[in-house]
Specification:
With about 100 residues, the chain is mostly helical. It is about 80% helix and about 0% strand. Helix 1 crosses helix 3.
Length: about 100
């Protein structure tokens, strides 16, 4: 379960980074045309959530820190909700596979 959750979380992280980059590019273009700056918060937030999800997916594949893997799965829920929910469920079910601190 941890391996499947890690893969789903990584996919969610990559989608979040790409969607955030597109949103940042679009808001930068709109800001350049209209002169309205400060519109990139959504894109920046998606990129940040995508990075956390990507790192959480790697942690889940290595089965190191359950808490960070769960955090990554929760962050993967924002770009793609069904994928993130599945990832959260798989991480929760596979808690026993993670190393004890």
């Amino acid at each position: 379960m941890a391996k499947a959750a890690g893969i789903l979380t990584i996919i969610g992280g990559i989608v979040g980074i790409v969607a955030g980059a597109i949103a940042l590019g679009a808001t930068t273009l709109v800001a350049a045309i209209t002169g309205m700056f400060g519109l990139g918060a959504i894109g920046g937030g998606l990129v940040a959530l995508g990075i956390i999800a990507l790192i959480g997916g790697i942690v889940a594949l290595r089965r190191k820190a359950w808490g960070f893997a769960l955090t990554g799965a929760i962050c993967a829920m924002f770009p793609i909700v069904p994928l993130g929910i599945l990832s959260i469920i798989f991480i929760s079910i596979g808690k026993k596979a993670f190393a004890k601190p």
